[in-house]
Amino acid sequence: MISLSMTPCYRGVAKWLPQRMRPQRRSTSEDRLGVVSGKAWATTSPASRISDIDTVDTLPEFPCVSSSSTTSAGDTDAAEEHEIEQRMADAASHVLPWRLQDWEVVEQLQEAPRNQGCVVLAKSLQHGGVFAAVKQMPNTWVAASHAEFARQHPESAERPWFDVGVVNYLHDRGFEHVCRPLGVFRDTFSTYVVSSYATQGDLFSWLPREPEQGDRESGILRPLMQQLFEAVRRLHDLGIAHNDLSLENVLVTQEDPLDAPSIKLVDFGMASLARRDRGFSGKRSYIAPEQHEEGACDRFLSDAFAAGVCLFTLATRSYPWDSTRPGACKRFQFITKHGLRAYIARKRIRSSSDVRLAQVLSFDLVDMLDALLAPQPQARACMGEQCFKDDIVSGVRRSALSMPWLSA
């Protein structure tokens, strides 16, 4: 048996695990795009990976899992800060000992450099061989509670206990687009945050995929993006802005071979409970341009911008720009001046081809991208949140969930 505490970033794969069941490794680095950028518009059709790994419906109750919410699912009242604080406190006070003999590591799923750790796929030997995702972080970083972490790391954008609290809160509210929290464990050196395993990797790993039937827009993009947009809308209606949406932070799971894949949002360490906030957070290609300006900005619209970057990247297998920081990227400067439609009309699908993006993207998809990636937030589409209801009804702002591409 291989111990997590013995190998903080274990990179091996258990020989007994069939190749089709081995998860995609994930990295938070945007440099991962280089892996597939040379394969843009490939005609390969890899089979959909259907995993028979135990999923959330078959997970037994772990001893540290509890739900203290009395709010009914579907309630769209704003999330109360004290409820998340209570869940952070509950998680910190119910940390269980990490028992080496209870787990067997299968593979590293991703590095977690901002939390000084990694995420691995592990097999629970005490719960019928159930697979779970285990995020391992050093105790010197995590600290014993959110309050202690805040004292030790007052400038940190990452907040591991806040991440735990938000996920527990969302799970208690019946928000189905998070991985099921299974508890927090600790040994002498590390803290382990355990959750259900998303069997199909992150959205980044879907970049090279082609559908088994039909075109890529209808077979892959539309079903996944409709779920993502709906998940973001519901998150915002609960009063939470994610602030770090990216392809790497959207996981895909398939609980049954006959079910459609479903998406899960992860990494809420940068999330905020204030719709308007200062500063910027997230990965450089996904940061909305207004976050680089002075003053507070609408974080819900910033999330919409990041969702648009996810859609563009998944559709074209390339980022629209390297950065939205003023003067940092010529492509973003061109789009700011001439518009995204002009960029799509000129951009080749790859350097060796004369085919332009406008020739392979549908009109309705380009319309969606243009609305979500508007550099000015006042012109940007929203996700149909309740707070934008009056703007949507009056025609001042469009809702991405009501646009033609999603209903095609």
TrEMBL record:
Q: Which Pfam families match?
A: Pkinase
Which superkingdom is the protein from?
Eukaryota
Q: Which UniProt keywords apply?
A: ATP-binding, Nucleotide-binding
- Protein kinase domain: residues covered: 103-406
Q: What are its GO biological-process terms? A: intracellular signal transduction
UniProt GO molecular function: ATP binding; protein serine/threonine kinase activity
- Sorted alphabetically, which SUPFAM superfamilies does this protein's record hold? Protein kinase-like (PK-like)
Name the CDD domains for this protein: PKc
Q: Cite a GO CC annotation.
A: cytoplasm
Record's protein name: Protein kinase domain-containing protein
